[in-house]
């Protein structure tokens, strides 16, 4: 019997998203990349000109942006979309977004909004969640929990490669 929920945890650059996407494609599961959701919020904050240090402003943007998040499920799988576009295709890895993410993600209330979205997707069908604290905070009852790690040197090499791509 296949697990309904797979949680993939680990530090930045450990391969959570890459492994999660490959597993989701193979198993026909929805894949939620927590990092992309935070990047989506950071993009909304930047697009709106909201101060990323203003909790109320960030929460307003987060609520609005995340209302547009939907899961399209077909054939047992699923794609996370925002306004009809796959989240994975939204070009959310700019330097400006990268520097804004920690500023918006540090707010516990923003993290709770993101967790609500993650839990909603989980309730809709087979799902793989990839991110930090997934197996302990977001989906502590996941049917399968994976923890990925690689050496610091490999993580640094991956970061450099991603920046040059």
What does this structure look like?
By secondary structure, this protein is an alpha/beta fold. 52% of the residues lie in helices and 16% in strands. It has 7 helices and 7 strands; from the N terminus they run βαβααβββααβαβα. The chain has helices at 16-27, 34-48, 55-67, 95-105, 108-123, 134-138, 152-164; strands at residues 5-9, 30-33, 69-72, 79-82, 85-86, 127-130, 144-147. A 4-stranded parallel sheet has the order 2-6-1-7, with helices on both faces. A 3-stranded antiparallel sheet has the order 3-4-5. β3 (69-72) and β4 (79-82) form a beta hairpin. It is globular and about 45 Å long.
N- and C-termini, Cα separation: 39 Å
State which percent range the strand residues make up.
15-25%
The largest beta-sheet arranges its strands as 2-6-1-7
Mean pLDDT across residues: 86
Q: Enumerate how many helices there are, as a single number.
A: 7
What would a concise description of this structure say?
The chain is built from 7 helices and 7 strands; from the N terminus they run βαβααβββααβαβα. It has helices at 16-27, 34-48, 55-67, 95-105, 108-123, 134-138, 152-164; strands at 5-9, 30-33, 69-72, 79-82, 85-86, 127-130, 144-147. Strand 4 and strand 5 form a beta hairpin.
């Amino acid at each position: 019997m296949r697990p309904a929920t797979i949680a993939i945890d680990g530090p930045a650059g450990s391969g959570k998203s890459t492994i999660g996407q490959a597993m989701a494609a193979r198993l026909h599961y929805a894949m939620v990349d927590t990092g992309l959701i935070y990047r989506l919020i950071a993009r909304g904050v930047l697009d709106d000109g909201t101060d990323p240090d203003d909790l109320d402003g960030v929460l307003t943007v987060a609520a609005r942006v995340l209302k547009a998040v939907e899961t399209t499920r077909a054939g047992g799988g699923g794609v996370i979309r925002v306004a009809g576009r796959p989240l994975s295709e939204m070009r959310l890895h700019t330097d400006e977004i990268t520097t804004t993410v920690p500023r918006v993600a540090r707010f516990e209330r923003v993290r709770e909004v993101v967790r609500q979205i993650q839990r909603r997707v989980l309730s809709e069908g087979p799902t793989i969640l990839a991110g930090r604290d997934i197996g302990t905070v977001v989906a502590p009852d996941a049917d399968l929990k994976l923890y990925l790690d690689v050496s610091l040197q490999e993580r640094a090499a991956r970061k450099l490669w991603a920046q040059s791509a």
